[in-house]
Design a protein that fits this description.
GO molecular function: 3-hydroxyacyl-CoA dehydratase activity; oxidoreductase activity
Helix content: 25-40%
Domain MaoC-like: 429-542
GO biological process, one term: fatty acid beta-oxidation
InterPro entries: HotDog_dom_sf, MaoC-like_dom, MFE-2_N, NAD(P)-bd_dom_sf, Peroxisomal_Beta-Oxidation, Sc_DH/Rdtase_CS, SCP2_sterol-bd_dom, SCP2_sterol-bd_dom_sf
Radius of gyration: 34 Å
CATH architecture of the largest domain: Roll
CATH superfamily of the largest domain: Hotdog Thioesterase
Mean pLDDT: 80
CATH topology of the largest domain: Thiol Ester Dehydrase, Chain A
Organism: Myripristis murdjan
Amino acid sequence: SGDSVGRELQNAPHYCQSFASCCNTVNDLGGDIKGGGKSSAAADKVVEEIRAKGGKAVANYDSVEDGEKLIQTALDAFGKIDLIHRVHLRGAFMVTRAAWNHMKNQKFGRIIMTASTAGIYGNFGQANYSAAKLGLYGLANTLAIEGRKYNIHCNTIAPTAGSRLTQSVMPPDLVESMKPEYVAPLVLWLCHEQCKENGGLFEVGGGWIGKLRWERSQGHIVRHKNQRMTPEAVRDHWDNICDFTDAAKPVSIQEGLQMVVEVLSKVDSEGGVSGNPTASAASASAVGQKLPPTSFSFSHTQCIIYALGVGMSTKDPDHLRFLYEGHEDFSCLPTFGVIPSQAAMMDGGLASVPGLNIDFTRVGLCTLTSQATVADVLDKGSGAVILLDVNTYSGDELVCYNQWSVFVVGAGGFGGKRTSDRAKALVPPPNRAPDAVVTDSTTRDQAALYRLSGDWNPLHIDPSFAAMGGFKAPILHGLCSFGFAARHVLKQYANNDPSRFKAIKVRFVKPVLPGQSLQTEMWKEGNRIHIQCKVKETDAVVLSGAYVDLHGAAEGGGLQSELVFAEIGRRIKDLGSELVKKVNAVFGWEITKNGKTAAQWTIDLKSGTGSLHKGPYSGKADVTFTVSDEDFMEVVQGKLNPQKAFFAGKLKVRGNIMMSQKLEVILKDYAKL
């Protein structure tokens, strides 16, 4: 559209200021309004105006049919080609981005995007210009949503004005009536602090102002449950699809998705379509819905990549057990448990839920299955929060549980509740100086490394994508900062023993840039470690209301055997009656650590449906075993023969030693260790 752009520039010299910072190639044959003749005057005049404003410009007088000549002119003059999108769309984005934080800080801002009817309706020969101008409207819509809570309003105007081309085909008084003076008052009002309009689109010209809005037909369902959707069905119902009788007028993404959400529910139940679906009903129907189960296979390789991704290094000897699969205590960081559950959330098809708009320590290949369930849907006004509970299993055994809070921008305002008793609560740290502080530096490649664990969002690697999100560079994954903080606690208070890790809860507050230092502040209160994570260079809090619960002295002193007895307790609860019939005995255990008794357990498989007791036992055990925590684990895992342990003095027995033969029923048949 080179010819028309050149003419438009000449006919609207006030546009030239927008082009002053760009390298411009002005193309105009200089023909008359019928397309005949040729003159350099039109293009030269625009070039002079741009240069007078301090810009760079060069004229080209070729026809757009000789497009290669036009482009070569630009390349010869500037060595590059500036596209209309860079001026109209990206230019508006960059200017708005520069002002945005200032507006947020002062709690006031008014932004007016200048679109065009060519973008709203389309116009022959202006494909690139039309795309850029409608892109401005999309940008304005999102800014209106994001700026609302900061009193920043963003609206769009599509002005109509007279031009050189219309001077010869319109009466002078009509051209005079389309002066900019008849557009400016609308702009001034939209900028006024008393104006509450936000997200509007207005056509304006000649003293007339009109507001536009979207309209959507009621449409028609063209598929049925468990049947293919066909183009023939679309053809047969085309009149219904295009019938605007009782049309809806959606004004938000939440309203825009209402019908689709309702259709999913109706198709699933083979019911009809409601003419007035409500988001609150949709969100209510989503609660309790299960996402499709997902499988996640991994080996020691994924465990090591994750450890490196959250800052583990061979520079620290204590980290080797997480980085070397041949280490005698090779383990996976407990927070690796977020990886399979995140895969369940993303790959499990969150958008497919009706009612919504919108073994870690072993070498070898393992497969886990995750089941995600919508626990609740909350209305936060500017968006909706979806609470997802994700249970991850190895076979039938629950390995870990995660709860995710997913914020969907623009999906709020449906009148739902704001809080849920199903959400795991955040806990503020104690009002005192932290008991311990650990600082760790991230590397420039930290995000590039962490993404190998499965979070491929380009926000963390692509500078241009990050810029579109308002960041000056790709940001670190929130779950990477989460991993850093968790391992700081594990080292400070659990001697890097993953078996002591019980639970973690955090709230993500602000992003971190790769290369910045993470500072984790810790407060110990019993077995709970309150944490707050900051960027050391800026003192900005990035994780808040967070805590880590550990298996501490009150729960077995961080003993590995704690996990074994917990599993035995679960098996007794499920199969106690059967075990009592097979075993009919009471076993006592004294677990030692560093030569001292650290825990006492009693397995009663003689009375009732069986039971497991922790601590001193008031009754009498048939046989009592005394063994260190380490040797107990060796026996349970089959690495140490019990008879050899007995004769070596590692396993001491009191009472009816023959009863020990029945231990195999408990430790092997049912514990599934």
